[in-house]
Amino acid sequence: MLLASGYYRIVAPFSRIRSFIMAPGTGGGGAERAWFDETCEPDERSETLMNPSRETLDVLPNRRLSLYQSRLGYRFSIDALLLAHFVSIKRGARVVDLGAGSGIIALVLAQLHPAATLVGVELQAAMAERAQRNVSLNGLQDRVQIVKGDVRCPQILGTRASFDLAVCNPPYRSPNSGRISANNEKRISRHEVTGDLSDFIGAGAFLLRDKGQLALVYPALRSADLICALRQARIEPKRLRTVHSFLGTEASLLLVEGVKGGRPGLKIAPPLVVYRDGKQFTDEVAAMIGGAPPPGASLELAPDDDFPD
């Protein structure tokens, strides 16, 4: 379902295993399914381990990746997939995903780039544990590692300047903007309550080698904040692409790639349009996600309460 802001949500019949794409937008927090209540779980990890029904096992449309997700908490959105297909990776690169969530970006990158090795950093214990299970579920343990850690302490990953590429889908909202969820996973994923944009970019600057790349997806409304924060960390924006719901609409997201210690010079790629008329994915986006929405899914408009103020 397309929201006016450029978010997309598919409302599909319930099943234990189902293909899906949820759409951009809340910095890893993503749009939740319409039938899920906004419920605060006091201990999501222990509750999940005792009661697996608190998770869903989902399959990407290309049928090549499966992953567990919290039924009530964090669920990834299409902006993660757009970022994974935007980044440029050299053969054999060492990649770090800052704020890995369920591990979706690291998993997609591992699938797209068989010679790359990846480390995902996730603050929340339940999500880090779930991401590790997703790595094992897809048989990628030899190339993808999940570390429970705080991006504000990047030294937990070891040596400074030890990665070629950092990717990041950070929280989109400042702490005093928008509705703050009662659910811990959603609140931390959406709002800058345990780290703001400069923390994520600072972690990338610490971990990247000289001339290493940092790629992010971020709301177009906060594009000035993003560019300023990158330059403050000596990461020069080199490639930018705007994301639009439809051709002719305002940009809702930015995809940006910067180079640590790079020289000025920004290339702006053609806009990425998600939907054509009739709310069908454009050919480019359909190719990224591996197919159209699952049979039986309905596209319907819902109140736009997820986009950052």
Description of the structure:
This protein is α/β, with parallel strands linked by helices and 309 residues long. The protein has a domain of 197 residues: Rossmann fold (3-Layer(aba) Sandwich). It is 24% helix and 24% strand. Strands 4, 5, 6, 7, 8, 9, 10, 11 and 12 form a 9-stranded mixed sheet that branches. A 3-stranded mixed sheet has the order 1-2-3. β2 and β3 form a beta hairpin. α1 crosses α4 and α2 runs parallel beside α3. The N terminus and C terminus are likely disordered.
Kindly report the oligomeric state of this protein: single chain
Distance linking N and C termini: 20 Å
Report the CATH superfamily of one domain.
Answer: Vaccinia Virus protein VP39
Number of helices: 8
Describe the SSE topology:
Blueprint: E1 17-19, H1 44-50, E2 55-59, E3 66-70, H2 78-86, E4 94-98, H3 104-112, E5 117-122, H4 125-137, E6 144-148, E7 163-168, H5 184-190, H6 197-207, E8 208-219, H7 223-232, E9 235-244, E10 251-260, E11 267-268, E12 272-273, E13 275-276, E14 280-281, H8 283-289
Parallel strand pairs: 1-2, 4-5, 4-7, 5-6, 7-8, 9-11, 9-12
Antiparallel strand pairs: 2-3, 8-10, 9-10, 13-14
Helix pairs in contact: 1-4, 2-3
Short structural summary:
The chain is α/β, with parallel strands linked by helices and 309 residues long. Helices cover 24% and strands 24% of the residues. The two termini are 20 Å apart.
Notable characteristics:
alpha/beta; nine-stranded mixed sheet; disordered N terminus; three-stranded mixed sheet; Rossmann fold; 8 helices; 309 residues
